[in-house]
Amino acid sequence: MTINNLSPAEVTRYARQMALDGWGREAQEKLKSSRVLIAGAGGLASSVAVYLLSTGVGAIRMVDQSRVTLSDLNHQILYRERDLGKSKATVAERRLKDLNPFSLVEGQSKTISEHNISRLAANCNLIIDAMNNAPAGYLLNQAAVKFRLPLIHAWVWEMDGRVTTFWPGQGPCLACAFPEASNGHKSALLGPMPGIMGALQALEALRILGGMGPALMGRLMMFKGDQFNFHEKPVKANPQCLVCRRLYP
Ligand SMILES: [Zn+2]
User: Fold this and answer.
1) Which CATH number is 192's domain given?
2) Ligand 1: distance of its center to the CA of 119 in Å?
3) Which of the four pLDDT bands, split at 50, 70 and 90, describes residue 133?
4) What does R_g of the chain's alpha carbons equal in angstroms?
5) Which of 46, 81, 103, 202 has the fewest CB atoms within 10 Å around its CB?
6) What is the sign, positive or negative, of the torsion defined by CA atoms of 106, 172, 247, 170?
7) CA angle, corner 51, sides to 173 and 184, nearest 5?
8) Which residue range forms the structural domain that includes residue 35?
């Protein structure tokens, strides 16, 4: 049996999504053969990981060096009171394995750096930027450029969120859109905001991995939670981008 074959239990498990027009068995098997790097194990990552696992992505590598604190529990839905003080990567791995035994989950408790990012991303099909941390985003972007991987980026602060897909070689990279890191890190956050933006990242990832194609490449989608509206603006590849211009003739 190859890794792509779906067992009867998996066919039942995914029946609701396999009944969708444009999804079906072929897309489900593509999903099963996919590996995703999720950078971060906080609020965005909790939401992304639960949806990617529950829908049958074959393998997930989740990387985060931090431990669960009490103020994480208002928005990081993977964790419980009993997890306080424990490694997020370790707890997340255990909880996600409970969710879907047909997928491989690997939690790595480490800081993503220029020394390990290539190794972490090397055999993945897609990168999720769930760090809410600008310097880390640029490291992920370097790997996306190196391996020409889609990088689904999201960011949340207070009642605002943004999400977009970078795909070096096919569309803009993160440095095309944001040549310089934005200043400051606001820690005020209402729980559902990372949940919403993480769910959008998961939906976009499923579209790409399942073969429907990206919806957010070249589109920076922003959600204002205080006004309950979405708006967007275009993002273009920058021919002078210092990070990705070599990919273009
Ligand atoms: Zn670029």
Assistant:
1) 3.40.50.720
2) 21
3) confident
4) 17
5) 81
6) positive
7) 45
8) 21-247
